[in-house]
């Protein structure tokens, strides 16, 4: 395979990050775009010069001149489309979350094993420069044993509306949408320890606050504030079998002074902050040092992160790299998030 022939399924807001990364990769031929809304698929195909347009993903998957697909559709379709794509012999880059239920995530995992095709889960923050730089320090032992991590992804106003706010189609609110990013990042950098138990709380106190003006936020392509059946905020404590723990809180809306994205890790030889900007904390000659790595982007660079994620996927399709975000990790994150919702519903800890 000299070029990987790509189809992008779902041509809404995030597809732009995929499409622009694919067209910049010299080893990619952008073969097709698909969206159930034909005009949206056509507009994306025209803009990024994709050869063919589909409105039914099954027709795209039947296209023999496509090797791999990006799935950028609603969360409740990820499992079904991933399995169909794998069965059709395509490699898959599936946007996060892998699925909205553990049962379906396990079915996708079985399909990967059965077909021998690749499936990369869209944990894009693993590919940020700040993450990659820190990973080298962690792998070299600079943080020692990481026993505690803490992450917040708090939006004071940022319910994307449309399907995101419809639990039927999204599977959940901020926990599933933005929580997976920071839970995954901590878990990945902690060395993917086995989860022992989860305690969570979920709140639906403020609604989507669509009355608020003069503040912009990420919106679904079909933004609609009329329906909202997801939580406003969630928090959780995740315990691991190796004794480590992770605390997380996330919101679509909260009476917070400002938005906040923080990801912090603490080990017995050093600590680190990945967000809001990379910093490594250490001790030398009886003095604490906050080390500021000199790199272009010390915070997550959205478009750069997607380019790096997609370039990596293409390298995997070409057989020149091994997946770093395989289906198993998507299954594990689905288990963690589902357990947080279960714990909140039951009002007690869920033990794995
Ligand atoms: N990695 C990230 O940082 C990130 C950021 C935003 C969104 N996402 C994920 O990307 C996915 C899409 O999000 P979005 O913001 O682009 O949503 P969106 O609503 O803007 O776009 C989704 C598109 O998918 C289309 N679609 C839905 N079901 C379809 C189907 N069965 N066949 C064909 N087309 C279908 C819709 O018509 C729509 O155009 C979600 O899973 C979301 O969680 C990831």
Automatic annotation (TrEMBL):
**Ranges of residues in domain Gfo/Idh/MocA-like oxidoreductase N-terminal:** 4-123
Please report the stretch or stretches of sequence annotated as the Gfo/Idh/MocA-like oxidoreductase C-terminal domain: 137-350
Highest taxon, organism lineage: Bacteria
Q: Which Pfam families match?
A: GFO_IDH_MocA, GFO_IDH_MocA_C
Q: Name one GO molecular function term.
A: nucleotide binding
Q: Which SUPFAM superfamilies match?
A: Glyceraldehyde-3-phosphate dehydrogenase-like, C-terminal domain (SSF55347), NAD(P)-binding Rossmann-fold domains (SSF51735)
Family stated for the protein in its record: Belongs to the Gfo/Idh/MocA family.
UniProt protein name = Oxidoreductase domain-containing protein
Q: What is the lineage of its organism?
A: Bacteria, Bacillati, Bacillota, Bacilli, Bacillales
């Amino acid at each position: 395979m000299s070029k990987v022939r790509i189809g992008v399924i779902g041509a809404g807001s995030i597809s732009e990050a995929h499409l622009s990364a694919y067209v910049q990769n010299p080893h990619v031929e952008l073969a097709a775009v698909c969206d159930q809304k034909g005009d949206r698929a056509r507009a994306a195909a025209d803009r990024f010069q994709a050869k063919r347009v589909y409105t039914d993903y099954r027709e795209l998957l039947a296209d023999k001149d496509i090797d791999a697909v990006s799935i950028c559709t609603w969360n409740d379709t990820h499992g079904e489309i991933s399995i169909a794509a794998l069965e059709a012999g395509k490699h898959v880059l599936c946007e996060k979350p892998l699925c909205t239920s553990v049962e379906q995530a396990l079915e996708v995992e079985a399909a990967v094993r059965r077909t021998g095709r690749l499936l990369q889960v869209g944990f894009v923050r693993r590919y940020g420069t700040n993450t990659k730089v820190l990973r080298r320090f962690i792998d070299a032992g600079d943080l020692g044993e990481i026993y505690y991590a803490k992450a917040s992804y708090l939006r004071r106003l940022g319910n994307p509306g449309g399907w995101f706010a419809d639990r039927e189609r999204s599977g959940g609110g901020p926990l599933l949408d933005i929580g997976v990013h920071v839970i995954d990042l901590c878990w990945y950098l902690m060395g993917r320890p086995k989860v022992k138990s989860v305690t969570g709380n979920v709140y639906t106190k403020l609604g989507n606050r669509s009355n608020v003006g003069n503040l912009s936020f990420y919106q679904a392509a079909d933004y609609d504030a009329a329906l909202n059946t997801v939580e406003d905020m969630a928090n959780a404590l995740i315990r691991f079998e190796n004794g480590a723990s992770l605390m997380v809180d996330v919101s679509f809306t909260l009476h917070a002074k400002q938005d906040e994205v923080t990801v912090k890790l603490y080990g017995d030889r050093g600590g680190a902050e990945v967000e809001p900007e990379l910093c490594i904390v250490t001790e030398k000659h009886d003095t604490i040092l906050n080390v500021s790595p000199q790199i272009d982007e010390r915070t997550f660079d959205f478009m750069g992160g997607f380019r790096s994620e997609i370039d990596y996927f293409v390298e995997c399709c070409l057989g020149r790299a091994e997946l770093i975000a395989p289906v198993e990790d998507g299954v594990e994150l689905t288990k963690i998030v589902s357990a947080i919702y279960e714990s909140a519903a039951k009002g007690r800890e869920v033990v794995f």
